[in-house]
Structure formats: C-alpha cells, structure tokens
Amino acid sequence: MSVAKRLKTTWSGVGSHVVVLSHGFGLDQSSWDDLRPALDTHFRVLSYNLAGCGDDGASSYHRDVHSSLFGYADDLLSLLDEVHAQSVSYVGHSVSGMIGMIAAVARPECFEQLILLQASPRYLNDPENGYVGGFEQGDLDALYEAMATNYQTWAAGFVPMVMGVGPQHALSRFSETLFKIRPDIARHILKMIFQADHRATLSRVAVPTHFIHSRKDVAVPVDVAQWLHAHVPGSTSEILELEGHMPHLTQPDVVREALMRRLLPLMGVAT
C-alpha cells in the first residue's frame, strides 16, 4: 500500500508551492478544516493522518515503527518522496512540531520553512537543567493509569483540560477524533510523546523555523516557547494572546492570520 493511501492523504488548493499540514495527538487532519479554505486560495495543501489516528487509524499503526517520533518522521519523509514534494512549507501542531524538526534535520532540502504550533521537545520538568516542561513524572504516571483503567472517563477530563476555554463544538470535535483512536494505541502514543526528550535535536535544525504559542497552555507553558526560540538557530517566535493547546480549533481566525503572515510572502503577497 502506498504511503499516501495508508495515511489517508488529502490534497486541495491551487498554486505551485506546497503547504503540508500535520496534526497533533488525539486529532486527525480534519483539525485543519477551519484554516484550509484560506490556504487553498494560494497554495497546494497536503494533509494526512498520523499513524494510529483518524478513521481506521489502527491499520496505519505499527508498534515497532511508531515507538518513537523517528518513525513518524520517516512516514513524513516517505510521503513527501512519494508525492514528489520538496521545499514545502510544513505546518505542524503539537507533537508534529518535533516530527517536522526531526525530519528537517534528516532531509533539510525537503523543507523551505517550518511553522510550528504549540510544539515541545520535552514535556517533563528538568529542574537540574532549569527546564520547565509542564509535567512531573507522578502526574504522567497517574494519567497513563487513568487511560488504562477507563479510557472514556479519562478522555472526558482530558479534552477540556487540554483545550482550555473554547466553544462546545470545538470540544466535541476533539472528543470525536480522540475516540477514533484505539485506546491501547492512544495510551502507547501519548506515553511515547510525554516520555520523550528531543532537546538535543534542536541545535541541528537548519531550516527557517517559526514558533507560534498560546499565552496559556497547560500542556506547553510559555517557558517551552522561550526555550525553543533560544535553542533553534535563527528561529522566530510569537506568543498569541490565546488560551489552550488547540487554538486552531478554538480561535481559528487568530491562528489563520498568524499562518498567513508567514506563508503569503512566499507568493509575493504583502501582509
């Protein structure tokens, strides 16, 4: 099976420049629906489902391959090769931020720029090195146990905690895509994400990188945004006056404007 078919790839839009949209944990490519029409006007837009996510996500997930973010980065690079896309603008949310950076270190020629929303290289606090990731190990152990004990009850609390304030339809959309993930796969993916530490990768990112973060995010505090900006060479960063880990769902107009400020200059359009 082709990579594009396995990951349920969707193309839309017009233009010569390709924008790749890669979603975060618990979501699927439908999370970009509110932003996509504006992007389609200027760009060819490619989205896909991360392995394990979306409709029939279990068929795309292989526990040995996807036991680290390197497997997901390989998926991304294989997809770009298969569709003959190079020098793309990559927009990654949450875990897809690190997936994009890992892929860009391996194959920088594939990317013109990275635009990363709510990215984090490490979610655990590391006080010995002055790093604030947002979580203590005990908190995460309790989260994994709750997922294993009663997935539905865990999800009912996880959705509003991560999203922060937001309209009911946005909460419902996240709940819907979260429940599409098989519970054992969701637990394995989330544990892999939360226990990872990719800080050493960042100094090797040579592709122009722009970070976008909400002012208040329980999953990725502003300290992480500042740390990323300081450790990715030549990167730029902006903090949006928003709350929650999924502002493209809860405040899509604000995120859309931020994305277009980075993308439109590629087309010679003033912002």
User: Please, how many helices?
Assistant: 11
In terms of DSSP E residues, the strand content is: 15-25%
Number of strands: 7
What is the N-to-C order of secondary-structure elements (H for helix, E for strand)?
HEEHEHEHEHHHHEHEHH
CATH level-four homologous superfamily name: Alpha/Beta hydrolase fold, catalytic domain
Overall CATH class:
Alpha Beta
Low-confidence stretches: none
The main β sheet shows up as:
7 strands, mixed
Overall form: globular
Termini separation: 41 Å
Percent helix: 40-55%
- The SS-based structural class is alpha/beta
Summarize the structure in words.
With 271 residues, the protein is of the alpha/beta class. Helix content is 41%, strand content 16%. Strands 1-3-2-4-5-6-7 form a 7-stranded mixed sheet, with helices on both faces. Helix 3 crosses helix 4 (95-106) and helix 5 (137-149) packs across helix 6 (151-163). It starts with a helix and ends in an 8-residue tail after the last helix. 42% of the residues are buried.
